[in-house]
Amino acid sequence: MGTTQLEHARSGRITPQMKAVAATEGIDPEELRALVAAGRVVIPANSAHTSLEPVGIGERLRVKVNANIGTSPDRADPAEERAKLEAALKAGADAVMDLSTGGDLTALRRQVLESCPKPVGTVPIYQAAVEITSQGRGIVDMRPQELIGVVEQQAKEGVDFMTLHCGVTLQALRALRDEGRVTDIVSRGGAFLACWMIANEAENPLYEHFDELLEICREYDVTISLGDGLRPGCLADATDRAQITELITLGELTKRAWDAGVQVMIEGPGHVPLDQIQANVQLQKRLCHGAPFYVLGPLVTDIAAGYDHVACAIGGALAAWAGADFLCYVTPTEHLALPGPQEVYEGVITTRIAAHAADIARGNPHAIARDRAMAEARAAMDWEKMLNLCLDPQRAKAIRMSSLPSEEEVCTMCGKYCAVRLMKSFLRPGR
Question: What's the pTM?
Answer without folding.
Answer: 0.96
